[in-house]
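Session log. Operator J.P. requested a structure for one protein chain; no other inputs attached. Running the standard single-chain path with token output.
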Amino acid sequence: MPFVRVRGHQLAILHGSRTADTGTVDQKTLFTFYSRAEAEAALGPRRHELEHILEDRHPRVRFDWDNLWKAVGEHLRALPDTYDYGDRSRRRFQGGLQAFARELLLADPRMQPQAGALVEEHRCELQLLAWLIKWRLETAREDDRFRGADEFHWRFEAPADGVSVDAEEHAVGLYERGQYAEAERAFRLFVACFPSYAEGHNYLGLIALAQHRTEDAVTEFRVTAEKGRRLFPKRIPKDSWWGDHATRPYMRGLRNLALTLNRLGRYDEALELCDTLEKECHDDLTADAYRASVYLNTGRYVEAAERALRLVAIWPDDLFVAGFALAECGDPGAAAVLVRAVLHHPRAAQAVVGGRVPKATSRDEWLDDEAGRALRENLAGWFGAKRRPGLTLLRAVLEAESTRLALAELRQAEDAWRSNTPGALSRIQQLREAAHAETLARGIEGR
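Structure written below.
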């Protein structure tokens, strides 16, 4: 439990923890007050602000705030009246800036050939920093009214993970545009600067997955889960998981690790993680989505269909999993399910059966293509067989005149919706309803 101690002209909030190896107690400084004005602000109207900052920064520590504030009030006389908070931040910033500037000044490619190779090796990081410097200079003189007061530098000195939102969004943009080398160097720089930045390892895993470095992805997602698990409170109600931002890196790590292990054919491990997601994190929907893929890959078709059909209202991609599983079981309802799958993801359906798909010209088409790519990779075990009745049925659905006419009408409705035509969205929903799919599925060869 944290406690307060006087340290010269400062007040420190400390926390002791016993090391597992030696049994000794190590004391860690959680926060330091440097002036009476700061402590009085914390005891008064700013109390909850500082409590929130420290709880975010030290999520696994339980604070007895009433006793802590009482102790701070008892030791106010130990503190000076004022303190130059900008000086401490300034000295730290200047020290880092000077160290970086010295290395950059020395690395002159025109004077030292080896410097050119060194600069080229770090081109991605330097480009990121060049963008960040330009952006920081552009925003440095914004009106302080839009930033909020931070005269004691609480938010500046105690960030949750250190990586600013704008820097993260910039790196995420590189990843989403397929600039994987640049995105990876950016996130590696972030996690080197801030070791507790679990989300950075999650993106490194996604980048590795996109480049088919599957074992590297497993490593990064494991690190994401391990770091993420240490970042949130010990006691969290199950219905608060995912709703609480602090749990998200851990859950993303588990989810992406389960997905990756399925792609590697390590099905038992993937199912164990699904159990963890459901029992520990109360994330039964994601767990069932991954179970459905594993079950289809391993020939457990009835279970695959049951799990996937439960999810299709949330994730239409699972219509493919359900349709394939039902086809394997000889269920006559498979055709209608695959018709709905095609009406939600026509480009993915063409890619799955090996058809030619034109280059995407919009974000919706890109997302459709991504759904097809994910299906091929997530169901690699099932696609590996020479003959699959589900693929035969899907080809028949795509070739049917009724499907072609429905897709043409769907495209018209989508164009009308983009033009804000009244009733267009309702028509899109009607075209994708189960009852309409049942009608279209009648008479399709290969049922």
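Operator note: Strands lie at 3-7, 10-18, 25-33.
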